[in-house]
Amino acid sequence: MDKVTKGQRMDEKEYDNLVFKKSMEMVKEYGFKCDPANPVPSDDQLADEIYEAGLRLAVDVGGWCLNTRRLIKITESEIKESLREAQKEYLAGEGRDAKKIFARRPESTDRVFFLGGTYAPFTEEVAPTIAKAMAMLPIDGISPFNHREISGRRIADMPLEVWANRREIEWTREGITKAGKPGLHVVNYPISTKAAVITSVLQPNYIRKTDGVMTSPLPELFKIDYDCLTANIVAREYGCLVESDVAAMAGGYSGGYEGSTIVTLAGVLLTHAILSPVTISADAGMHCLNPELWATPETQWSHNLCVQAIARNTLIKTRPSVATSAEPCTLQGLMEIAYCTIGVVVSGGCEVFTSRPVVPRRVNLPTPLEAKWGLEISRGALGMSREEADDFIKKIEVPRQKLEVQLKGKSFVECYDLNTLTPNKEYLDIYDTAKKQLTDLGFNFKF
What we know:
Layout: H1 2-6, H2 12-30, H3 44-61, E1 63-65, E2 70-72, H4 76-84, E3 89-92, E4 99-102, E5 113-117, H5 127-135, E6 141-143, E7 149-150, E8 153-154, H6 158-178, E9 185-188, H7 195-199, E10 212-214, E11 223-224, H8 226-238, E12 241-250, H9 257-274, E13 279-287, H10 297-313, E14 317-318, E15 321-324, H11 331-346, E16 351-357, H12 368-381, H13 386-393, H14 412-415, E17 416-417, E18 422-423, H15 425-441
Helix pairs in contact: 2-3, 2-9, 3-9, 3-10, 4-9, 5-6, 9-10, 11-12, 11-13
């Protein structure tokens, strides 16, 4: 708290400009250049240099507190000490449903921890059903849904946020129990970052000590408030796993894709030193002027390079996310999942989440078939070299330009039988087409 309350005073705009200035200096000094011709880089020296630049940026700039409007300065020795405390693995879930989250290296054949779920808005009547349907898959953990309304009321203030978040976990636990997996690891994706909302589910009937919560700083680089700090303290004292979603946007105060990679790395290191999360989502390079396209060469170059840099130099366990521009029940959506998942697996991602549209414009959108597909892709990618993965994903057709209209598909309730919890023939045909296309290209589906 001394660092938060006694650091140098600075306006937010001044901090933003400092991040931009320093990151651009790093890009110029090291000569980094985004290489969209190789969306899955395999240059270990580049990965190590981008890590070094991220470490320097974390030390040179530090974080910023919204409440005190002060810099949070962290020394290099403090960062390295926090890295020495990182463990090789963690156990998530309980009983026969417990699985380990391993720190992985690039091209590791160790299996990834696969997180199913939605990270998207669902209606109350569908919530337990989607949780059960997801848990019926051979996933290692689940991150549930959010709600836009609760009991007919628009969620617009903290009491309703607390109520909605507790219902979300309650319905998730109901669903996984009906699926026969009561011990499945659950990650609370909070509807709000307020401390009262996050801490309201920290009890055995909701989030157990073998489950997880997300407490995330804001970009760019590392902005934090008292709510995040409070929730993190309480969660750590409670003893559950704590995750943090660290991301940087190309085209903003990070600069371009090169700068966003450095800034994400710096944010990961600051997060680990200040919040010490168990797993961190390192999502670098999403373009703020075109946020709905995730499966682009530039974005994946940044994303995969960031994951590689962390995997080669630390035991931090990353959870790179995979998202789509298309809605479910589309061939494009499945191809976007494959394009992104292969890269993060061979780059050393430890925990993979798939999938939902980057911008879910309707309720009840994600379905279990995208998760099943992502799980199959992540297993099939094990054993591929980065060069093989790079050559392979270039053959996958995904959109490259800004979308004027999101490719519309069908929601969970539109393409699934809610009694049998199986996809309809239309979506199964699309799935079979996608599988044949990748198989014809030489992808090895291992189950």
